[in-house]
Amino acid sequence: MVAVFNKELLSWYLITLKLKETLESGIPSSPNSGNRSIEFPEQQLEKLQQEPTESLQEKLEQARQDNVASSWSKLSIYKIPHYLRDSNGDDDKAFSPQIVSIGPYHHGKKRLRPMDRHKWRSLNHVLKRAKHDLRIYLDSMKEIEERARSCYEGPFSLSSNEFVEMLVLDGCFVLELFKGAKEGFTQLGYSRNDPVFVMRGSMHSIQRDMIMLENQLPLFVLVRLLGIQLGKPDTKGQVGALALRFFDPLMPSDEPMTKSDRNKLESSLGNTITFDPLSDQEGHCLEVFRRSLLRAGPQPVPRIRIKGVADKRRQQLIHCVTELKKAGIKFKKRKTDRFWDIKFKDGILRIPRLLIHDGTKSLFLNLIAFEQCHLDCNKDITSYFIFMDNLINSPEDVGYLHYRGIIEHWLGSDAEVANLFNRLCQEVVFDDDNSYLSPLSEDVNRYYNHRWNTWCASLRHNYFSNPWAIISLVAAIVLLILTLAQTYYSIYGYYRPAR
């Protein structure tokens, strides 16, 4: 044993031993001898190229299957991208169900298992009411299993039997809720005191969960299950209509369209409204809800510009409410149930009424996420919210829009509403060339940049804001005229004396 009296030397000695042990543990040993050798990265790569392992072959095969065009063309139910989920911080509840799971993404999660008991109750009601055997539903879902799987993004751990069972259980549960909202749950055989199948209690939370992008079933699955229950193979349009009725409380506008407004809409579209939210059975309930919101939405005017990566600086489409008011722009509520249909003419910005409640943020975020993920749809919902985000920079902006009847909210304060809009479109990829509001924004900006409008607005604000200011201004003008007249006659009398 060697006694070491220098503490610094002892520390370096121990560090050297530790480094030696670490290096030796990371050096692979040769199978033919007890000597150790270091294998450099170039040698490892060469070895992998010469002797591909079975796992590499499997990965290449999976990559080949993923590159097949058909595997992506039917995709419609996406996982929320990390850049959208992370940008909303503590708002993960907006994307993740809290009560019920629908589909494979959140299937089997611990906090959602209590609702499975009620799913089995609903399935039992369906089988008992229709006098069907469960095997009929399982066999039918087995036939469309691959088609249903192709609608989801990425692999999941459910086996074939588990996936088919999930389609039947979740699908019948969804249809029971849809039919109960229309016909009444007591008519379907449920008790008035049922903890789930009543239009009160937790139903609002269930509706909010079922409209989430990650919590969807393909529409054709629901169509086939409803066809089996009714004994009619052709139920096109019925499921979509039931879905819209069930999700109606989540609509962001409760402003009914008047008959005259509807006639104007039809005449502007050539007396024909070609939109049909129920026509496409390849979608899901969130997509049906989105199409019902947009209906025959306006299309942006094509503009010639070099395309490129979306620039966040170009998302500033318009100035905020406070600044626009200073330029003399007025805000009025537009009577229409199409909340996105904004108009601007003669310095007046007409915006439809928007209703905001505690479930609105989740709905808006999932609609935006769907437009970000699905390449076959336009970005009209995203365009609207970016426009509103530009308009609203402060609680004062929200307060004024509330005063004008444009925003109605059930949140705690105007500051919460401002924060909602300011965070909705963070990290969203957007090109304002494709926005239906771009021409309108350009008209507003031209009006804003005209100095004469700003001067007139300043004059009205400073001198015509109340009756006393108007009286003072008129008195000052009269006094100025009298003073000028007196001055004129004094000078005139001096040079032209009376004869």
From TrEMBL:
Top-level taxon of the source organism: Eukaryota
Keyword Membrane: yes
Keywords on record: Membrane, Transmembrane, Transmembrane helix
Sequence intervals crossing the membrane: 468-489
Keyword Transmembrane helix tagged: yes
InterPro entries in the cross-refs: DUF247_pln (IPR004158)
Pfam families cross-referenced by the UniProt entry: DUF247
The protein's name in its UniProt record: Uncharacterized protein
Organism this protein belongs to: Phaseolus coccineus
